[in-house]
């Protein structure tokens, strides 16, 4: 995964957002939604295709688990890139996902997380992000990955308006242009959308078709 570590407009946007919302609490709610959806998955579902073109549900879950472990380690000062590597799902993928989600939630809840400078080795080997940037990256990922899992399992997904409003701000701050086409880019190029639904807008802004799998 790669991301443009621009500290200009995006940082100012996040600074303004932090004055209005509790990013850690919003992230916890997004992750909780993802856990509730993953709880519905069966072993037979692991071979289903997902909106992430290169992954079945098995691949998506291994990615999500690795991200949780990676973010948790990073906010605690561990810059070792191997903590971001995927690992076997094991005999109980749902339990593995729950454990990883709990780990990152505990790490983000530490009281001084926004005061830290954080090296996210999967994003950049050198640039240190602010705590707010790190939490916002994880937050928007788990809004979108919750949608990914819901679509994969043909289940509804619901977020409250306050969460979606914040997610829309973060999504709008994600760099576009050529960075979306780079190998390992966090998100694909924006796709057209035609509905007024806020979640549809967010996933479209971040490279998913709201109509998947029909389009």
TrEMBL record:
Coiled-coil region list: none
Pfam families named in the record: MDMPI_N
InterPro entries per record: CHP03086, DinB/YfiT-like, Maleyloyr_isom, MDMPI_metal-binding
Lineage top rank: taxon: Bacteria
Signal peptide: none
Molecular functions per Gene Ontology: metal ion binding
Domain Mycothiol-dependent maleylpyruvate isomerase metal-binding: 30-149
Family matches, as NCBIfam families: maleylpyruvate isomerase family mycothiol-dependent enzyme, TIGR03086 family metal-binding protein
Protein name (Swiss-Prot/TrEMBL): TIGR03086 family protein
Origin species: Nocardia brasiliensis
